[in-house]
Amino acid sequence: MCHMANAARAIIIENDKMLLMHRNKNGSKYFTLVGGQLRDGESAEEGVVREVKEETGLMVTSARPVFIEEHAEPYNHQYIFVCEVAPHGDIAIQEASDEAKLNQISTNLHQPFWVDVSSFANLPFLTMRLQAAIVTALKKGFPSEPVKL
Prior knowledge:
- It is a single chain.
- The chain has one domain (about 5-149): Nucleoside Triphosphate Pyrophosphohydrolase, CATH 3.90.79.10.
- Helix content is about 25%, strand content about 40%.
- It has helices spanning about 45-55, 100-105, 130-140; strands at about 5-15, 15-25, 30-35, 60-70, 80-85, 110-115, 145-149.
- The radius of gyration is 15 Å and the shape is globular.
């Protein structure tokens, strides 16, 4: 039996900067959106709030679905939200999170990072389809209803 695992990710933009996760996975370096796998029984909205908190310490105050990135089994569907966050100080991976544990024991590193929105299109981003959709939305506005990629 193939268990589909879904994920929720956040697009967070403040002061012309976008919050991304810089990954160094066994020497492969790239950026992804902050977020991760949903737990059993968890809605995508609940998951994105929890993941953002774990990976950055930020508190999501609103999450609006804008993209659904579909993958073939056994991979997951990714639910992408534009999120607003509460006022905050520095961002940091929270000590209790899975990412903090991975950072301590392995070559699978996670580092949250603010990048200039203007440079986003040129970053090594995990999926080009999603990157292209975000680049377009940064110019034209994010969709009012979630768009399947």
